[in-house]
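Milestone M4 deliverable, item 7.
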Amino acid sequence: MKTNAPLYEMLKKYAGADCARFHMPGHKGMGGLGCEQYDITELSFSDNLYAPQGAIKQAQELIAQAAGAYKSFMLTGGSSEGVKAMLCAALREGEKLILSRNSHRSAGDGLVLSGAEPIYISPRIKEGRLAQPVFEEVRQCVLEHPEAKGIFITSPDYCGNSAPLKEIGALAREKGMLLLVDEAHGAHFPYYGFEGAAQAEADMWVQSMHKTMGALTQAALLNIKDNRFENELWAFLPALGTSSPSYLIMASMDLARAELEGCDREAVLSRIQSLRFGLKEAGFRLNEGDRQDITRLCVITAPALSGLNGAKQLENMGIYPECADEYQVIFILTHKDTPEKLERLYNALLALKPEPFVPFPDMPDKLPERVISPRQAAFNRRHIYVPLEESPGKICAQAFGTYPPGVPLADRGERIDGDMIDYILSAAKSGRELFGVRKGRVLVCSEE
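Output delivered:
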């Protein structure tokens, strides 16, 4: 059966042909994974991601139409590649960017590469995690920093909470600022009719098709509203991405778009709503609200049970959630989840057993002191690893924090303080996964 997926159809045709492959990859279309026949390189007919004229160009045009974008660029290095390219295209060294503190660590990498300087919106903590900024907090930061080039917002966040993007977008246009959005967790929004970056008229936004759609891991998009930064992106994307982009990943994006366009989305949402209703009827507390993505199921288990211990119980029942923390367990629900799988999840949640636990301290809710810019911390100083316990007072040279969601506790150029270290040590003791910490040490700027 032919699909409306030109890139996939091109690969399928080549895989079914009686051809002798004397080109990369070395597996020659054979192997134990079962997908090798579709894994090819740039050939006379297969198009080129960085100069698309054929099937890749057609696939990107179909995705842009679905995403509500002027143009969509396929990424095979995940949304992290897109965030870095977006910041490099939009910003120049020394320019200021207003950011929500719940930004992914890739935003910090983008600041290093672009040379831009961050202005963070004051953070708030809600049940152990950084909450989305409310409009008035963004507005106040904009009024205090009219020199900023743009506003960078992560929406939705890991828990499925969206920021007030339409209001922020209107404010950005009023003040002559850019609106850049990390919508990694919202690639499915346009397909289900959820409002997101496109409706807020963001200048550029990034989406992870692998997170909430049917694409392979690392499949992502960088979308643009118009051609303002198109030339810059044609330069930065090849520089930041691999010169051997995976055709498997690209074809999976093509198929994921076609599949979600063709599925019964109302039935999918109905199944998810029924699960949420059943859990609430059973006494569970869920993340709710006007800006909550209903496909992101956040079951709040505290104070009866740590989310981390709840996740362990679920894994023993064969249920693997996306992630967990002290307060909750998080599940990503998609069109691939059958009624039988959702019922299994429901029954497993009902079987959870309370376990007493001592919660560790919440993430610090004050902004760290910025000493030097992220770029200066990365390139203008020597670096040394020091034990976590000895790091307070030193300047952070590599972002560190808990993962997921990959939000830095301290970012490059910020002064590490004791509250940060108390939190990260408690998180490690409780079983949280850390990033930027190597054998109990963090990278700091040397004083030499």
